[in-house]
Amino acid sequence: MKSKIFIKALSILLGLTFCFGVVGCGESNHPTLPDYSEVADSYDFLAYSPPNKGVYQFSNSTDIVELGPDLRTVEGYTVYKDAGFNMLMLSGTAAYDGEVPFEQSETCRAWDNALKAGLNRMIVNDRRIRDLIERKGALINENGSIKNEQELKEVVKTYLSDYATKEGFYGIILRDEPDYTYVKSIGWVCEAIRQAAKELGHEDIYLNLNLLPYDNVYSRFGAEGQYESMGEAYEGYVRSFLEATKLDRISVDVYAFRAKGISGQFYSTAQLFRRLADEYGVEVSFCLQSFQMFTGSTMNYRMVDKNDMFFEIYTLMSFGFDQFAYYTYSNPDKETSGHWPNNSSFVNVDGSLSNIYYYGQEVMANAQAMSDIILNYKHLGSKFYMAKLANFDNSPYLAAPRRCCENI
Q1: Which residues of 284-312 are buried (b: 16+ CB within 10 A; e: fewer)?
Q2: How far apart (Å, rounded) are the C-alpha atoms in residues 155 and 61?
Q3: Are strands 283-289 and 261-262 parallel, antiparallel or unpaired?
Q4: Which residues pair with 66 in a beta bridge?
Q5: What's CA 10's distance to the chain center, in Å?
Q6: Which helix (H) or strand (E) holds 22?
Q7: What's the average model confidence in pLDDT over 13-36?
Q8: What is the pLDDT of residues 247-272, one digit of tens each?
């Protein structure tokens, strides 16, 4: 009888000990999870070929056709913003060329509508600045119209003064995918923009420079004999722009989903940009794929699905990229190098929303849901881990220039 009483008492004691242990230790001994509520950081999203005029010229025709509504409206920009985009490129049919006073331009009208839709960071494609860049090394010339960097700054300041004081002005689009011959002119123009913007009241200005990805076309990256290998040529190309422009952010576009599989350059380029960004102390942006493209009857880039889009962004988030552009939001209004089928971008030519729109909306929302946590940390590195005997094709992950992927 005594033993039963003892066992019963011991059981009650152990039970009470467990209860007090759970309740009593809850506040003092259990680990406290970090609170990220005050971080309030977010990813930046923008799109190439943003809401357009609804007028197209296809690569197989010289005809200009109106197939959809003008999306450069308050409603059109609201749809764009609702997808998850928080920055806007005023490019394409919303670019500015200075042919009419800014207040009377399509750029200004689109800008005002975007502000009403709740977008407040505008990046302007000023074609006059683009024309300066196209002069390459001859831009500053003792015998030319611009003889020194001071004169270049005054020219650029005249251009910027058209819109630099307008609400929402955030930055300038420089040039898409320049080869190495543009290093001098883009470097000069970057410095001229910075100085002119500062004189116009902007201490800091966003400059969008989207560089070429790694490929096997040596002539894009360096003069003949300048480098010993393609890997060295590409790294030298990126370094030359970093040093000439002194930008605090650079971008690159590598479209992973090709007709024959995943591009090996997707990983090698991302890793090189991450490594050089850390070395130079700059931020990095990446242009993601939301299009399908044919050259003639040959498919070069396949259509993406939702899993592809998640794969893209999660991979790059793991590399520490914090700003993303999608190519494209709508089909290019003028096709020159290929054909972009309907239903392969966020918005179709008739203005309707494709599945890509809803995939992208979900992808961006998921990324933003994690932004406070992920962007609170500093990226230190990424590595691949594989079985010695892979039973799948791993060449897209390993077929890369040695210098670009030395950390794998």
Answers
A1: bbbbbbbbbbbeeeebebbbbeeebbebb
A2: 38
A3: unpaired
A4: 55
A5: 65
A6: helix 2-28
A7: 54
A8: 999 999 999 999 999 998 999 999 99
